[in-house]
Amino acid sequence: MDDIRSASPKLPGGLVLGPAVTKAFYITGADFYFGYNEVITSTSATNLAAIVMEFDTGADRFVIDSNKVRGLLAGASTNGFLITAALTDWEIKNNKMQFPSTAITLGLIQVLGASLGGYIGFNALKNTVAASTCCIYFANVASDGVCEYNSCGETVGTATAPNVSGIILAGTNTLWNFLENYSTPTKNTSGDITPVRDT
Q1: What is the rounded distance in angstroms from the CA atom of residue 99 to the CA atom of residue 102?
Q2: Is the alpha carbon torsion for 149, 150, 156, 157 positive or negative?
Q3: Would you call 50 exposed, middle or buried from its count of C-beta atoms within 10 A (0-12, 13-18, 19+)?
Q4: What is the pTM of this model?
């Protein structure tokens, strides 16, 4: 089904994903809108969503806008927001996400398919799982879009330089442009430009 819209007032206690589910949301219809919700990815080590939201073939033009996403450290998801197919003209913007993803190098937002016209902007992100290095991950495929003004926090500490954490590109086939994104993997420090700046 296409053109599904979810824009709710804050539910008492938030929208809890669980008890244990593999995919809390699996989207295959076009023009899906999910905005102004509070989502709780886990409430315990067993009450959690393994994948918070997956966008597969057909989910073109989806918009994830102005949500608060949180979860307990003890109940880490495997993946957060997962774009698996070659979709077009989608947006993830204005969200505040602080939850643990056990894919420490894959982050909370993962672009795996060769999407075109994607947009990731103005999100405040923190992967709270231990030793995390990534908040936004791009697979080594010919996807393109704009990724701008995202703030990324990780937990790995001084073992990883801030300009190679936060946003990770798996290879050189990505075609995205990155503008004013910041990352810090170390507590009590300010962020640095991520990924590595153009010279």
Answers
A1: 10
A2: positive
A3: middle
A4: 0.91
Cα atoms in the Cβ-side hemisphere of radius 13 Å centred on 62: 30
pLDDT digits (tens, 9 = 90+) for 91-140: 999 999 999 998 767 889 999 999 999 999 999 999 999 999 999 999 99
Q: Over the stretch 59-68, which tens digit does the pLDDT of each residue have?
A: 999 999 999 9
Q: Which domains does the chain have, with CATH numbers?
A: 5-193 (2.160.20)
Give the integer Cα–Cα distance in Å for 134 and 117. 22
Determine the 3-state secondary structure of 183 from DSSP. Answer: strand
Sheet holding 38-40, edge to edge: 15-16, 38-40, 68-70, 96-99, 124-127, 151-153, 182-184, 192-193
Number of other residues whose CB lies within 10 A of the CB of residue 100:
24
Q: Name which of 141, 145, 164 is nearest 154 in CA terms.
A: 164
